[in-house]
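User: I'll paste a sequence; please echo it back and then give the predicted structure.

Assistant: Echoing your sequence first, then the prediction.
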Amino acid sequence: MLSKHDLKSIIDLEKWQVLQDSLSLVTQMAIITVDYKGVPVTRHSRCQAFCQAVRRDAELSSYCQKCDARGGLEAVRLNQPYVYLCHFNILDIAIPITVDNQYVGAVMAGQVRLADNDGSRLEQIVTRPSTPESAGTFAALRQEYGQLPVMPYAQVVTIAEMLSHLCNYIVEEASRKNEIMDLYQQALAASPVDILPHKTLADSSCPAPQAVQQELSGSAAPIESGNKAALMPDLSAVSCSNPTLQPAFDYIYSRKHENFSLEAMARLCHISPSYFSRLFVRESGENFSAYVSRLKIGQAKQLLETTGLSVNEISDHLSFCDAGYFIKIFKKYEQRTPAAYRSFIKGEQG
């Protein structure tokens, strides 16, 4: 299981950097992301010229680091965005990122000045003694200081809340997906078990006529033939171009005899049913029900070719609601009934 404290393992940092750059552009704030140890995991986005110069100064940079560290700790303590003033009275925000109440890192944003110059409501988190050297540095950078973005306090609070909700949602969803993928790989490595609830023959019901018509509207191209043992699950899997769908394809191909719904497969892939449906059609070229029907008919052909199971037994094994429905679907795809197909195959083999 991936560590919930390892932000580098939870998210794709290259994609996160692109998002961070975009957020910085929209909010006009400098942004950087750090892990739970305070170590930066991204590059600084939109770092202001004044702050760049100050952080390069041997004396002043240590105060910047203290501001970052204390701001992050205070945000963790409060478990909410913490808005404060740095040692140059520049406004900064520390936004904690948590997953299941576990602190995994923080987003540091800011490098702006308050529009109303009202710093009384904010804490200057680190005070710096005035020295001739620091005063000279500030005087030399007065023009860069004047170029810092200026924002009203209400806008800063709104941005802080937006960044908090967005960052925590993205990180938590990525963490959930990583956990599910890890559990799924463990399940594949273990002995076959039912990892999703599915309908059994006893509680199956025939689909409505409209559903039958929709299912019959899929492609009639035949699939799969072979001489594998009939009642053993086909553990072969197909690779798809979209890795998000791979758990569903693995599950479908290894459990063709089961009933499984689009909703169940969407849960397995950790995406919504509607999004799963769109991705599935884009990947396979047909809707989910038509694809599964073709797959089951391919398995039925194998059973008809390699076993002496009756049509009723094959229908039951593949979890069709009854033999009549199975025969109707089979005939749609193969232009002949299961019994006629078996006779045809035996004739060719004879």
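The chain has two domains: 7-181, 209-349. The two ends are 55 Å apart (CA to CA).
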